[in-house]
Each structure stands twice: as structure tokens, then as C-alpha cells.
Predict the structure.
Amino acid sequence: MDFEVIDDLLEDAKSTSSDEKQVSTVTPFRVLKKLAVPNPPSEGTVSVLASSIWYVYNNASILDLVDDLTEDQSIEAVGVVNEKGEIEGLIVRDHLLQMVGKPFGRDLLGRQKLESIAMPVAPIDYTESVFTVADQIEQKGRSIEYYVLKDHEGKYRGIFSSWDMMVFLSGITKNDLSLARKIQNSLIYDMYHQQEKDFSFAFSSQMAKGIGGDFIGVKKLPNDRILISLCDVSGKGIAAALISSTIAGMLESFNFEEGVKSFLILLNSFLLKTFGSERFVTGIFFEYDASSSSVTVYDMGHSHLAFVRNRKLSPLKPPVTNPPLGIVEQLKPNRFQFSLQPNDILISYSDGLIEQESPQGTVYSLSKLKPILCAPEPLPLNAAIVRIWEDFHSFRGHVPQADDVTLLLLTRSPS
């Protein structure tokens, strides 16, 4: 690839073969030249970061470059090349102007060529993966601000800065967060209420920071049974949203003829194999049998349960417990059972409810649900949840919501 300016190329057009590529364009500057890139940057490679394709020859005058940079304040750095277009070094605007601005700077540099002050560089192949280069830059620290790109022949292909890299990566993060938010929104309900013949249930979630780890899944099972799960994935953001979506997919596709226990063992194995104990899930899994009004509960490190019977609200302490999913190998889930009587209400919630502080520093108490759930005239479950949210937000006042909060209510209909 020839680095002659276009005027010379035009003069020699008759003797130049048709397959030679133009690599520079006409500019109004004394010594600054600009690459004419024949092909667009390749997606996924570091070439997409090139924010400057300006260069100068190593035998150009320092003061001519100073004059060029003075005319265009937007050019922060330029590559220095030899007559073959091979990279010789780098000139950074601020460094050059500082040198010229020193006492007698212009006099001392007036007769010198750019090769005498070009900063040595280790060029980066412009076909390298942008993520590989990002890792390399991170290991080198913050001392290098500009990076020169080369092709397979060692010729100049542009410059990018650490700022360009940061903007690129932040854009990817922003897009990933947007995707995670869409995933989360497809799994989280502001309000869901389902009325069956002999029972009803409702649940609602409010995220603290847009993308959280709370998740509720519902699965109809054979023989008039239903499975409801309330899970809290460790961490926030993209990873939590992806794990939540995975659990949702597994719930939807799993054949529950083998029972809930088999599903929990499979989910635990998946989390361990995929994340190696770095991510875990606490959860409560209810299997409600409408024909017998019995509830089978698998408490996987969750333990946030309460119960309303005869207008009395009481915490429900599980008689058996299990570790969170994704912590231990060879999981053997324990379960417990009880029966729902007419008008009983089973309550489960994520820890964000009882960890929320008020402006006075007190935490939200489960007892605050009593006036709502133990009223003489019971509210429909969805209306009860609305009242709980109103009380919760009134309690916290101007204090930000500290964590995601999910509420689940299940009741047996009156006889």
C-alpha cells in the first residue's frame, strides 16, 4: 500500500497499475495527511476505535506540524511514518505544544524534523479483537493514552485513545443493561392476580434500581396442582437477569412428573456447574394441591414466610430448611406440608421488605401487614397488595428503596 500523496499518484497515473490503492487524501495542511481508508472498520476488531487517521512523514518540519495543529484544534494525536508508510512513532498535540511553548522552543526546534521527537510506540494490529486489546490496556495501567494501529505490513492504520476504548465499552454495557432490563421486565409483574375455583393467589414486584434478582414463576401441574416459586438471585444487573430468565425457561420446560425435588436438584446442579458457587439463588417453592387444599413447601434458604389464620398474623418458621441453590453439591431438598383452611392466607416476601429503613432509622416490620390482611372484611389479594405498597412507601418516606421487594399471597376461598 503506497503512501504517496494523491497529487503524485495522479501525475503517475499512466504508469501506475490499476490495482494500487489510494491511501491518502488531499488536505489543506502543510504536512498533515489523512488516510483514505478503502474499507469500513471490521466489527469486533480494534479498528472500530480509530478516532484519528491523521499522519505525517518523519522528515517533515516540526514547526510546520505545529502550524497545522494550530489551525485544527480537534486533532489530538498523529502518527509518524517513513516513506513506505511504516510506523515510526507518535506525536501528541499537548506534548508538542508544550515543547514549543518553552523559552526559545521555536528556535530550538525550528530546523529539526519530526523523527527527532516522535514518541516510540508498540503498534497494535488493527485486526485484533477489541476485547483482547482492552485486557492488554488494562494490564498496562493508565500511563498510555494513545495507541497506534498497524496492518499486517506494519503500515499505519490510525490512532485510538483510552477514552475511545472507554466510550466503546460503556456503550456495550449500556446495551447489555437495556437487554437485561427487557428480560427482567418480561419476568417481573407489577401485579399478577389469578382466581381459581377454590383458591386464588397474587404477587407483585418492585425493583430498587431497575434490574434486580427477584423472580416469581408459576407452573400448572397435572391433577389440579400448581407450583409457585419466589426466588432471589444473588447480585444485580445483567447476570441476575440472565439467571432469572434461565430459571424461568427451566420451569417452563421441565417435566414435573418426576416432582419438584428433581427440578431443584437439576437447578442446583446447573448453577454449580455454570457459576461455581459465585452465584446462588434463595427461594421458596410452593406446590398447592387444590383437591386436598394442602401446600408442600421447599424452602431453599429463603425462610421469609408468614401466615394469617382466624385474623391473626404469625411468622411461619419452616420445620426443615435447605441451603440456597448453587451452594452445595449432592443437594437433598427437604420439604414440609400443611393444609389451608378457608380464608387462610399464606404470605411470602423477599428480604427487601423487612430490611427497608424509615427516615428515623427503624425497619419495616411484618406486623404492619396485620391491619391490611387481618381486617374483618378481607380484601381481594390484589387490593391487599396495593395497600401494602402504599404503606411500605409511606413508611420509607424520602429514604431510597434499598432492595428489590416481591410479595406473594395465596389464599383458600371460603367454603
In short: The CA atoms of residues 27 and 232 lie 60 Å apart. Residues 6-170 form a domain with the CBS-domain fold (CATH 3.10.580.10). DSSP finds ten helices and 19 strands in the chain.
